[in-house]
From TrEMBL, chain A:
Residues 144-246 form the HTH LytTR-type domain. The modification 4-aspartylphosphate is found at D55. SMART domains: LytTR, REC. PANTHER family: STAGE 0 SPORULATION PROTEIN A HOMOLOG, TRANSCRIPTIONAL REGULATOR-RELATED. Residues 3-116 form the Response regulatory domain. Coiled coil: none annotated. Keywords: Phosphoprotein. This is Response regulator transcription factor. The keyword Phosphoprotein applies.
UniProtKB/TrEMBL annotation, chain B:
TPR repeats lie at residues 161-194, 284-317. The keyword Metal-binding does not apply. Residues 1-19 form the signal peptide. SUPFAM superfamilies: ATPase domain of HSP90 chaperone/DNA topoisomerase II/histidine kinase (SSF55874), TPR-like (SSF48452). Pfam families: His_kinase, TPR_12. The chain crosses the membrane at residues 450-469. It comes from Mariniflexile gromovii. This is Tetratricopeptide repeat protein. InterPro entries: Bact_2-comp_sensor_kinase (IPR050640), HATPase_C_sf (IPR036890), Sig_transdc_His_kin_internal (IPR010559), TPR-like_helical_dom_sf (IPR011990), TPR_rpt (IPR019734). Residues 491-571 form the Signal transduction histidine kinase internal region domain. Keywords: Membrane, Signal, TPR repeat, Transmembrane, Transmembrane helix.
């Protein structure tokens, strides 16, 4: 049985989650709900829930303040938010789950399913560290959380030279010449890194524009990156690419 | 045997001036008038002796002696020298060479003391002539050359030619035929330079060339040509001796061509001329040659008749060489006559004479021939002992002559070889020149071709350069134009999308309102949540002109969910994407199908009483993406029949505009087709297939 609490300053939002949790009463028990940051912190420390539905905006403070203040992090967090773009990016980077309000039944189901499949939350404190780091930092110094075979890997965006697609996997090439194989599509990385000066030059290649050493003209041409790898530029992407590096 | 000595060559040397009786006569007139012993008379005497030289040597000698006496008396050295020369020349003509030589040396002393080069040259010429007569050809050539060098210094072409003529004669006697011909031709050229072709000198050189060709035996055509030319020239000049000699030579050529009668006729003519001017050597020569010619007719009587006439003249002239030849032919001819004792005796006598005289002159040929014929004669008499002796001597002579013959043969071959070689050289030279000329022509052609080609190439380059420049310029212009158009199109599209959103929003809000009014809070909440989600995605997509088909289909799916919920599951739907399409990599304008689906739902399905179905298909056809919306609703015809106001859907008109703009922008032919089916409507939207990568 999974125990859960809700921290949200709006009653109708709390009610909505309660409603949504009804079909899962056999697996998830709601053991408390709080409407302020402080009460939430106390609630976490006293109740020690497995999962916290955490609102981002709680009066004049945030859900991140809750995370900063709690001492132990042996729980999963599912943020709930209406429209905080900055926060959503941070969640994505840190691979922290979130639900958008008004919460869709289907989305909620996916989140609960994911929760059930997680055996333990041993890496969560690291995730939280990454999240808290990402909230405060500029894009390039943000860290992305990458689930690998061995566990979670935290990579600073500026460490990534390029990503290469391999069907449903992606290989990440880092500055220190490491290759990391991730079971995520290149598209997901493109979505994640598009605002960090990354550009998908080819169906199979996402590159960090900061690390281009040379562009060689051609039909589409190709770029040489600082690790001396040469990456073909797709003909259709050439114009956009040139605009991006222009 | 007969053909062994077919000719007696009579070569003459050119003289300074043509002898003309007329001139001699006028000079004699002058001499008679001018009796005073002064330089004028001396001059006349000298001129007269000079002219007598080739006409009458006896008179010439007398006159020259008078001149010498007068010159000595007047102590006029130049004229004395002149007189000496004239006397010497007359001596030579008379065959008294050694006397002439003495006079020449005397003259040379005078010229040396006077430092007169020209005078020396004349003397050298005379000395050369004498050595030539003595068959000392090397010495003769030496003196001719001395003369030539002096005349060359004086740039006297005519005298140079004369010296060359002498050298040529000496070379001919030395059997150096090709050299001789070369020298003679050089002489001809000098005469031709001075336009001195209708003269005795020129004719003489022609004669000499004719003689050589005649001797070579294999160039008789050339011999005939030169001899005829010589006869022609000399007839014009009126130099009788020369003419007789050239006729003699022409006759010899005919003889060689085995036309003895023609030869005899010409010799006769020659003889008459010689007799006319009292040129005894010429007469003798003509008589001898006529005689020899008759032996080959054969007419022995006539042969003997003519040969006998030649004998006393040669005796008188002391020309033993020719004398031995005449004697031999006489002997041989007598032997040819019917064998009588007297004839045999006469033959023996003449042959013995021939042998004796030829021994003196060292003529091996005649010696051998004479002995051979004598052997034959003694054989006829039955005196085999003597016959054998003569035969033995003949054989020995033949052997020693054979080597001479061999030498001659070798010489002949050498001459022939040199000739051919020269001909080859000339041919090679001609070929070379021809080749050079051809090469030059080729080169010119090549240059011409090259310049034409390079011109054409340059022209083409210029044209293509212009073309490329224009294309590039056009491309730049086009690009700018295109960029501008894109901007306009994008703005228009954005505006259209902006119109799109409220349209959708208000439709949705109407639905929510519907739930609320029916007091179905639960459904309203779910509906609104879905609506929020679709709004979120639509807003995200609206920033972009094109989104991936995958994303667009997600939104469509969401939209269909909402609508089916609102219509209480009155219809089912299916989205089918062709396997050939990579939804992630295919780009489409966002929500392009949405208005058609909306139309199907609200105008097709909602009015239908039974449950409806909508099929959405995405296919690839060539380079077009075909999106279809297929419903089994009431269709447009029914709509028209029921009379319900067929408002032209705002969404559809907007979509059509979007596609038009897209066509303009991408230069494609996207299209929308609405097909009325038996039941329902089928909409086909053709879009250009665009790939992200």
């Amino acid at each position: 049985m999974i125990t859960a609490i809700i921290i949200d300053d709006e009653q109708h939002c709390t009610d909505r989650i309660k409603n949504l949790l009804k079909p899962y009463k056999d697996t998830i028990t709601l053991i408390g709900d709080f409407s302020t940051v402080d009460s939430g912190i106390k609630g976490i420390e006293n109740l020690k829930p497995d999962v916290v539905f955490l609102d981002v905006q709680i009066h004049d403070r945030t859900g991140f303040d809750v995370l900063k203040s709690v001492n132990h992090h042996a729980f999963e967090v599912i943020f709930t938010t209406a429209f905080e773009a900055f926060a959503i990016q941070a969640f994505k980077f840190s691979a922290v789950d979130y639900l958008l309000k008004p919460i869709d039944e289907d989305d909620f189901k996916l989140a609960i399913d994911k929760l059930n499949s997680k055996i333990e939350a041993k890496d969560f404190s690291k995730k939280v560290d990454a999240l808290l780091n990402n909230i405060s930092k500029t894009d390039v110094h943000k860290k992305i959380t990458i689930p690998t075979v061995e566990g979670l890997e935290f990579l600073e965006v500026s460490d990534i030279i390029r990503c290469e697609a391999d069907v449903n996997y992606t290989t990440i090439f880092t500055k220190d010449a490491k290759k990391i194989l991730v079971s995520k599509t290149l598209k997901s990385f493109e979505a994640l890194l598009a605002n960090c000066n990354f550009f998908r030059v080819h169906n199979s290649h996402l590159i960090n524009l900061d690390y281009i050493k040379k562009y060689t003209k051609g039909k589409g041409g190709y770029v040489t990156l600082i690790d001396n790898s040469t990456i073909e530029v797709s003909t259709r992407r050439k114009d956009d690419f040139l605009k991006a590096i222009g | 045997m007969k053909r062994l000595l077919p000719t007696v060559m009579l070569l003459f040397l050119s003289v300074f001036v043509c002898a003309q009786q007329k001139e001699i006569d006028s000079l004699n007139e002058l001499l008679k008038k001018h009796k005073e012993l002064d330089t004028i008379r001396l001059n006349i005497l000298n001129s007269l002796s000079y002219h007598y030289e080739s006409v009458n040597t006896e008179h010439g000698l007398v006159v020259s002696d008078q001149a010498i006496a007068l010159a000595q008396k007047l102590n006029y050295k130049e004229q004395l020298a002149r007189a000496y020369i004239n006397k010497a020349n007359n001596y030579i003509s008379a065959g008294k060479d050694s006397l002439a030589l003495k006079l020449y040396y005397k003259t040379l002393d005078i010229f040396n003391s006077k430092n007169s080069l020209e005078g020396s040259a004349k003397v050298f010429y005379g000395i050369a002539r004498i050595h030539q007569n003595w068959a000392d050809y090397n010495t003769a050539i030496l003196y001719y050359n001395k003369g030539f060098q002096i005349f060359e210094l004086k740039q006297d072409n005519l005298k140079m030619a004369k010296m060359l003529n002498g050298i040529g004669i000496c070379q001919m006697y030395s059997n150096e035929y090709s050299k001789a011909i070369e020298t003679f031709i050089k002489a001809l050229r000098y005469y031709e330079t001075e336009n001195y072709t209708e003269t005795t000198e020129y004719g003489i050189v022609l004669t000499n060339i004719g003689i050589i060709y005649n001797r070579m035996g294999n160039k008789l055509n050339l011999a005939l040509k030169y001899n005829e030319q010589a006869v022609e020239v000399l007839k014009k000049t009126g130099y009788k001796i020369g003419l007789s000699n050239s006729l003699n030579n022409l006759a010899n050529t005919y003889d060689n061509l085995k036309q003895p009668l023609k030869a005899i006729e010409l010799q006769q003519e020659s003889y008459n001329i010689c007799k006319e001017v009292g040129y005894k050597a010429g007469m003798a020569s003509a008589l001898t040659n006529i005689g020899i010619a008759y032996t080959s007719v054969p007419d022995n009587e006539k042969a003997i008749h003519y040969l006998k006439q030649a004998l006393p003249i040669y005796n008188e002239l002391g020309n033993k060489y020719n004398l031995s030849i005449v004697e031999y032919y006489l002997g041989e001819t007598f032997l040819e006559m019917p064998s009588s004792k007297s004839n045999l005796l006469k033959a023996e006598y003449h042959l013995m004479q021939a042998y004796k005289i030829s021994k003196e002159t060292g003529n091996l040929q005649i010696q051998a021939d004479a002995n051979n014929t004598l052997s034959k004669l003694f054989g006829l008499r039955g005196d085999y002992k003597n016959a054998l002796e003569f035969k033995t001597v003949a054989t020995v002579l033949k052997d020693s002559m054979a080597s001479q013959d061999l030498k001659d043969e070798i010489t002949r071959l050498e001459v022939k070889y040199e000739y051919d070689k020269k001909a080859d050289l000339v041919k090679a030279e001609h070929d070379k020149n021809q080749a050079l000329a051809n090469a030059e022509i080729e080169r010119q052609k090549l240059i011409k071709k090259g310049s034409i080609i390079s011109g054409v190439v340059l022209f083409l380059l210029a044209i293509s350069g212009l073309f490329l420049y224009k294309r590039k310029r056009d491309a730049v212009t086009q690009k700018q134009e295109a960029e501008f158009n894109t901007k306009v199109a994008n703005t228009e599209l954005k505006a259209l999308r902006a119109q799109m959103n409220p349209h959708f929003i208000f439709n949705s809000l109407n639905s929510v309102n519907d739930y609320i009014s029916k007091n179905d809070v639960e459904s309203a909440s779910t509906y609104l949540t879905k609506f929020a989600k679709i709004m979120r995605q639509t807003l995200e997509n609206s920033n972009q002109n094109e989104i991936s088909l995958e994303d667009d289909l997600k939104v469509l799916d969401l939209y269909l969910q909402i609508e089916s919920m609102r219509l209480k599951n009155k219809f089912t739907y299916k989205i089918k994407v062709d396997d050939a399409i990579d939804t992630e990599n295919t780009l489409v304008p966002p929500l392009i199908l949405q208005p058609f689906i909306e139309n199907s739902i609200w105008h097709g399905i909602s009015k239908k009483e039974s449950e409806g179905h909508i099929d959405i298909g995405i296919k690839k056809e060539g380079n077009m993406l075909v999106c279809t919306v297929d419903d089994n609703g009431v269709g447009r015809t029914l709509n028209a029949a029921t009379g319900s106001t067929e408002n032209k859907s705002l969404g559809i008109s907007i979509t059509k505009s979007r596609i038009d703009i897209l066509n303009k922008k991408k230069n494609t032919n996207g299209d929308v087709k609405m097909i009325d089916k038996e039941q329902g409507v089928r909409v086909e939207v053709m879009l250009p297939l665009q790939l992200a990568f």
